[in-house]
Amino acid sequence: MQALLLHTDxxxxxxxxxxxxxxxxGLQPGSSLVSALITRSVVxxxxxxxxxxxxxxxxxxxxxxxxxxQLEDALNQQAIVVQxxxxxxxxxxxxxxxATLGLLPNKQLVSALTAEAxxxxxxxxxxxxxxxxxxxxxxxxxxxxxxxxxxxAWIVSGNFKSQDIGNMLxxxxxxxxxxxxxxxxxxxxxxxxxxxxxxDDIQKCNFHYLNQLHQFFVxxxxxxxxxxxxxxxxxxxxxxxxxxxxxxxxxEDTKPSKSQQQVSQTxxxxxxxxxx
Length: 276
Hints:
Layout: H1 2-6, H2 12-25, H3 31-43, H4 50-63, H5 69-81, H6 88-101, H7 107-119, H8 125-138, H9 144-157, H10 162-178, H11 180-190, H12 199-204, H13 207-222, H14 224-227, H15 232-235, H16 237-251, H17 258-269
C-alpha cells in the first residue's frame, strides 16, 4: 500500500485523517499500516492539535485497535499542552474513545478537559451524553459544576435521541453513588422526554445499550436516595422496557467496567447479593 511506503513523511493531520477515514468507511486497515502510523505518531506527537488527538483516538477506538502505552502517554501529554484549543466535540470524542478503549486518563488530563468543558458554549446533547457515558465507563466521578453545566445545556438544547437518553440514565446510576442530588436533578430533566425511548428503539439497540438501561432500573430499585427523587414517568419505563433490557443483561457475557465494579461494591456494602 502506498500509504505504508510513505508513512515516514506523514504529519499529524495526515495520520489522524487516514485512521479517521478507515474508521468512518468501516474498513479495517492492515496491521502493518496501523503499526507504522502509531510509530510515526509518537515521533511527531508535538505536532498534534486537539482535533488530531481526538480523531486519532476516536478512529482507533472505532477500529478496535489499542494505541499502545507509548502513544497513549505521548498523546495524553500533548493533550494537556494544547488543552486550551479543545472544543466540546474534541473533548467528548476523546473521552468516548478512551472509555471505549478502556484507557484511564491521568488526573491532570481529566482536570484539563474538565476546565475547558466548563468554559465552552457549544455543547450538544451527543457531546454531553458521550462525555458522561465516558466518565461513568471509566469510573471517574465528574466535577459537580461540570454535571450542572451539562444538565443546563441539555435543557436548552431540546434535541434528544434515545441513545443519548439511555446513556444519561446509566450515568445517573454512577453519579448517585457520590452525588445523589445531581443524579436526581439529571433524571428529572430527562423525565419529560422519556417517551423518546420506545420498544421499537430498544429492539434496534445493541446489547451494551440495553445493559445500561437494565442497570439503571436495578439502581432505581435498590438506591433509596435515587428512587425517592425519581419522577413516576421515569420509573414507568421499567414496565415497558424492563423485560427486554433484563434479557439482554442475562444473555450478554461482558467484562465489568470500572464503574460497574464500583456499583457492585456499593450494592454489596448495602448487604445485597451481586453476581458477576
